[in-house]
Amino acid sequence: MPGGAAGDAAREGYRNATGAPLRRHQAGRPMSDRPLRVDPAERITAAIPGARRRQGRLRQGRRPRSARRPRRLVRGFFRFTILLLLWAAILGGGTIGYFALTLPDTSQLGTSLRRPTITILAEDGSTLASLGDLFGEPLSLKQMSPFLPQAVIATEDRRFYSHFGIDPIGLVRAAVIDLRARHVVQGGSTISQQLAKILFLTPERSLARKIRETLLALWLEHRFAKDQILEIYLNRVYLGAGTYGVDAAAHRYFDKSAAKLTLFESAVIAGLLKAPTRFSPANGRDRAVARASQVLANMVEAGFINAADSSGAEKQGSALVVAGRPGSRYFADWVADQIREFAGAGDRDVTIRTTLDPRLQAAAEAAIADVLARSGPKNAVGQGALVALSSDGAVRAMVGGRDYGQSQFNRTTQAQRQPGSAFKPFVYLAGLETGLRPSDHFVDAPIRVGDWQPHNYTNRYQGDMTMAEGLAQSINTIAVQIAERAGISRVIATANRLGITSDLAKDASIALGTNEVNLLELVSAYAPLANGGIGILAYGIAEIRDSEGRTVYRRAGSGPGPVVARELVGMMTDMLAGVVGHGTGKSAALPRPAAGKTGTTQEYRDAWFIGYTADLIAGVWLGNDDNSPMNRVTGGSLPALAWRNFMLAATSGMPIKPLPTTPSSEESPLDKLLGWLAPSTPPPDPLAVEAWRYPVPQHRDGSE
Questions:
Q1: How far apart are CA 595 and CA 579, in angstroms?
Q2: 8 Å CB contact between 443 and 689
Q3: CA–CA separation, 482 vs 462, rounded Å?
Q4: What is the pLDDT of residues 50-95, one digit of tens each?
């Protein structure tokens, strides 16, 4: 029946779609008669194995997709972390391998390169300074003062005996302190790391160096025992003033072995590790004492000493005595710079005996320190320098500044400043060499040289006066007239012949000292006026010996010889004695014959006094490094006082001797006749004298 056939077909199609058993196709029945009323979605579902089961579960209560996302994120993060750690291990291992392969050679652990040592002695054999690389005797921990390793551990690496070469606790602590301060205050390096840097690396700040330092520290910890590491460190660490190792430092600063150091001295040396130059007792006792007090406090915290021991040690600070003389370091540096000029002396240890007199050096340091302490603040004077020579050019004292620890710039040899009127003796000597005499008369009045109108320091003019009086009162107009009559070229030649080596401009203002010179050459150029006309070369080295006692060099005397006629020396000395006797340099007067000249530059930027007795030539300069003006300080005030104080102490106990004078000689009748017959030479035309005063200071005037 049609209805029955249709129902059978529907049931068969349902079974096909739902997966029920199919009935066998009856032969002879066309395929087109099979029912095709099946939903396409159902056919897809039926074609996928297991789809019906999944579909059934969904219908019963399947989880939404949003519930599965956290699980997927966790799995993804876990996989990413594993991958990241894997790459980190690969890269880290490769980096460590690279730095391990590029580590410096550790086979030369026991060797060290060093510069030659230069030991500089004063004239009496006492040590002034030791320069170069100084290594002491290698000492074991048992041979050293027991306070020394304790002070170092308490200050540098308190957990030295418990860490493995790197101190994580110390690193964290240092990082916290640095973060709070917002700059590097404390480092986290252990003694092992510091030793690795000392032995194998450079001081550069870089990540590569830090990685190598860490690897080498681990190698040192594996290779050596803790005591051995500490021992090597104490024998090789740099401790300032060219010293390497605690024994060299002990000898340099305290003139004793490291085995004999006291508690306070051990604290001083341990304190140098932070900043060897800054805390060196040779550069500043107060800073060294303050740092030692910190070290003692560290030792109390670490349990090495008690508070009573610390207090007792600190009392030694007021009596701290450092071997050598810090003030003489300016002289020692000047001498050391000349060592290259002596063949064969630059590649081996040498001992230099110098010309410095410790007694005169102490007097020079006291004179400069006293004037700066008493009058420096109120007179706006920041720096001073002094140098003293014997008549043959030997440097007997040298002060290059107020504090070598604060500034190593030597204002005696390195500072080029205008000498002002202290240059005038060369102008007057050039005038004498052209025939002028101290008794010749000049007119002090406003003058003009081309477009230049020089004026006097006081802006007052005194009219007619002698040449000698013009020098005594430091009259600028007369100095310019003499320079013009002698010729600027002759003035320059005269100054060069006596010892001025700085470049001098061929300009009329040279008469007022507008060309820059340094104090040492200026004082050297006065020496021929003090010794009878013999040119000198300032020197500080008397003898050089090598480490085996062989003489490398011995001074046998040298110099340009006579540079000024004896007669003119006497004239110049008489005129310069008038400067001290009744002129601008009265404050420098001594209870013995003395001569000299003051000098002041424009706006009181420089003040000088250069003078001499029969035994010593000395010069003083006062001013400021930034060339700022002083408070009306002239050469005849503070410099003259400082010069007088030094010379009083320096010449104490010396016999009083006269200054060089003009030799007396009887003129023969023939000389008289020839002089009477010789035609007289008319004097050169005087410079134009203006009828007005030029009141405004010009740039080239040079003041007094």
A1: 7
A2: yes
A3: 17
A4: 544 444 444 445 555 555 667 777 777 777 777 777 666 666 555 5
Contact at 8 Å (CB) between 467 and 440?
yes
Q: Which of 553, 550, 556 is nearest to 537 (CA)?
A: 556
> Strand order in 350-354's β-sheet?
127-131, 118-121, 350-354, 541-546, 551-554
Identify whether the C-beta of residue 133 lies closer than 8 Å to the C-beta of residue 152.
no
Distances (CA, A) of 310 to 263, 265, 267, 298, 317: 8, 12, 10, 10, 11
- The identity of residue 254, as a single letter, is F
Secondary structure string (H, E, C) spanning 376-402: HHHHCCCEEEEEEEECCCEEEEEECCC
Give CA–CA dist 284/246, Å, rounded.
19
Instruction: Tell me the two tokens of residue 432.
Output: 């004498």
Q: Which distant-in-sequence residues (6+ apart) come within 8 Å of 361 by Cβ?
A: 122, 325, 327, 328, 331, 396, 397, 398, 399
Give residue 332's identity as a one-letter amino acid code: A
Rounded Cα–Cα distance for residues 595 and 680 (Å): 33
User: Distance between CA 524 and CA 479 in Å, rounded?
Assistant: 22
> Cα(536)–Cα(533) distance, rounded to whole angstroms?
9
User: CB 8: neighbour CB atoms within 10 A?
Assistant: 12
Closest to 155 measured CA to CA, from 320, 277, 300, 316: 300
Name the pLDDT band for 189 (thresholds 50, 70, 90): confident
CA angle, 17 then 23 then 26, to 5°: 125
Quote the CA–CA distance of 216 and 446 in Å, as a whole number. Answer: 79
Are 648 and 590 contacting, i.e. CB atoms less than 8 angstroms apart? yes
Contact assessment for residue 274 and residue 237, using Cβ atoms and an 8 Å cutoff: no
Q: What does the alpha-carbon distance between residue 598 and residue 579 come to, in Å, rounded to a whole number? A: 8
Q: Are 262 and 234 in contact (CB under 8 A)?
A: no
CA distance 690 to 455: 11
Q: Are 490 and 436 in contact (CB under 8 A)?
A: no
Q: Which two tokens stand for residue 201?
A: 């690396």
Residue 558: strand, helix, or coil? coil
CA distance 350 to 115: 11
Pairing outcome for strands 243-244 and 134-135: parallel
Neighbours of 441 (CB within 10 A): 11
Nearest-Å Rg of the Cα atoms of the chain is 45
Query: Three-state DSSP class for 154?
Result: helix
Quickly count: other Cβ atoms within 10 Å of residue 210's Cβ.
15
The pLDDT tens digits of the residues spanning 583-624 come to: 999 999 999 999 999 999 999 999 999 999 999 999 999 999
Distance CA 303, CA 309 (A): 11
Distance in angstroms (rounded) separating the CA atoms of residues 502 and 515: 8
474-514 tens-digit pLDDT: 999 999 999 999 999 999 999 999 999 999 999 999 999 99
Say if residues 511 and 480 touch (Cβ distance below 8 Å): yes
Q: Provide the residue count of the chain.
A: 704
Both structure tokens of 202:
């450079």
- Measured CA to CA in angstroms, residue 84 lies from 70, 74, 78, 324, 455 at distances of 21, 15, 10, 62, 84
Residue 123's nearest CA partner among 372, 417, 380, 359 is 359
Instruction: Show the tokens assigned to 175.
Output: 């990082």
CA geometry: angle at 185 spanning 188 and 216, to 5°? 25
pLDDT of residue 336 exceeding 70, the answer is yes
Per-residue DSSP letter, 700? T
Alpha-carbon gap, residue 249 to 254, rounded angstroms: 8
